Amino acid sequence: MMKKILSICLLCAIALLVCSCKKDEKITGKPSPLIAIADLKSMFKEQPLVLKSDEMMGASNICGIVISDPANGNAPSGLVIVQSYRRKQLRGIALALGADAANYTAGDSIVVKVEGATLQRVNGVLQVTQLSAGAVSKISAGHTQKINTAANTFSTITANMDIYESTLVQLRSAVVENMVVGQTFAGDVPLSDWANTVIMHTEANASFAAKPVPGLGDYTGIAMFNASKQTTLWLRSDKDYIGQSLEPYKPNQLYANFPEGWESHAASPARKSSYTGSTDVFPSGEWLMSDMYSISSANLTNKNGTYAVMMRNGVAANLTMNFNLPYGASKFSFYYGAATQSATDAPLPITVKVEYSQDAGNTWTQLGDNLLVSVQSTKYFKEYTLNLKGPVRFRISKDAANARLFVDDVAVYQN
Known about the structure:
This protein is mainly beta.
């Protein structure tokens, strides 16, 4: 008996270290008693699989942080959803625990003996079933639950559910499709990014089921499949959403927070200050900004105001809205040119093009012909008169010319 107790204590200690650590630790010696959730899921080939230790690299257990929460009545019946961060991968899995699922709440750190259990899909959900009695041990509580991704374009999630299933995700600026007056959270509510749909599911007895659903908002929840293999989102409480308001419709007027001149910046995270990193957030919204950043250097003599975006030389780059503008576009304009007057930006020309998308960035259509930056000292301005109806986003691209490009005061007008 004492030997068994010591073995359990040792396993819990390992699980606490592995499940709670922020960095990957190199472990040598005998095989770990723990298998990463990512490795466990990779074994599944859409057929029920009995889990054997010798097929799990000698492991018999998984560990992770619980993200489902039955407290507010919106957790999948009989399931506990757990996610774990290992080898820079956040992956999740469902555990079929029946009535015992009510014993575990979001933030609990648990270790689960999966050896001898069965990995299978039930009603669309990949889950570990037929767990033995006492298979789950709670180690501690109150842990932070990481968000796997925050996306304005839902295809990032729907096309990669092998990564995002049973993990926390956030849908930003989601629109309720075909919303009716007085609509509540209860049941299945379709959320859209204007091109892709995710079903937000709320049980009838959830504490927030009767609350009015915002027509536009940010929603955080557990990504899962339903029985029809549709991507669904399960919120845990009314703290998992933030309602937003669409700006008033004012045809031919500038959209709110445009022109975007990069002068102001979101409070968090900090302003991107180098070519590394892929996104940055400004009053107009989140922009995709690989190989560029906003800069206030006095050497950018043609910029308007204090800041402009500078795009890297020697690589092709796209300055892209990662959000939709709801009322189409009647006009689009921006300033651009060689970033500085230095020798670094002398190898001209730079080829520039402008494109728009009306399917949340899945496909793009070019506006007019390519633009050329051929005079280093010139501040260029381009304006397009348009008649685009419905949601739209834009991007400005440069080729791989060996000179840097600046972009400033991007303006879009409602249609």
